[in-house]
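Notes, p. 3: input format for complexes.
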Amino acid sequence: MTILTARAHAKVNLHLGVGDAREDGYHELVTVFQSLSLHDDLEVELLDQSTAEGSIVRSLSVTGLGAPAVPTTPDNLVWKAIDMATELHRSQGGAPLPMIDIRLRKGIPTAGGMAGGSADAAAALRVMGQMASISTADLLPLAARLGSDVPFTLLGGTMLGTGRGEQLVPLLSRGTYHWALALNSAGLSTPKVFHTLDDMRAARPDMARAGDIKELSAALLSGDPHEVAKYLANDLQAPALSLLPQLRRTLNAGETAGALAGVVSGSGPTVAFLCESAEQAVDVADYVLDTGVATSVAVAEGPAGGAELVG
Ligand code: C5P
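Output follows (311 residues plus cytidine-5'-monophosphate):
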């Protein structure tokens, strides 16, 4: 029996500057991504039967954190990623591929602002890269079609993202950063958070904006988490707080516990606290959980890699 296992890493945005809405509904972003050790695992079993048409996916099952909220149908980004790569392979005259059963083990919160679904899709692309000999360069356009965060989760590390977030340039970063993560089972819809930001800006055109990334880039080069903490910024934090006001208490609790800084991760509701050490991250996570301002907590370090085959 052949099983391929791919690891999907979560991300946090150290900086998320959101511009105006474009014609296509997306917003121009200037963002700095960091991949985290927090991950999902995608196990793909290659069956004896192969097929030259239709989906190669026979089944998809999901276990672990928040599993009941994750679709196990062709709507799942994992399934879409497999179908898209299969189509590319067939369009290039590739041989019939084996049918597959997919088992996804979740460790990344669903709808948590940590690119869990995107990372799963990136892991699925890595598996297809192996099964159908597709290069990273050829996987990247598929990744961009699947979602704005999929290209970054494919590559990982520390990167500047522009456009929808899919145009990537590596950023120099020294050191390892320790995070405490406050998870919230409420979940937030990414489109809703972006729309709320548009509405807030329409009502208050002078609302503060995240600005440029000059200081953050210099701080990342220094490798000093105290410096990096000064420049964490997220334009989606204000709309996320307006949709889930209790996140303010979560932010306060982490800072009371001694975190260097806290920021809503992406479109939320996960709150990420940058800490000065792995030990402090555990202390902050414990405090936040005890205070009752998070559904669950996790610790992670970054930068990690991108989606990768393991084992
Ligand atoms: O690209 P993805 O499908 O992950 O994006 C989900 C939603 O987030 C989009 O439909 C859009 O509402 C919002 N979004 C945005 N601008 C971006 C990225 C995402 O408005 N740059």
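The pocket of cytidine-5'-monophosphate is lined by residues 25-27, 29, 147-149, 164-165, 190-191, 194 (CB under 6 Å).
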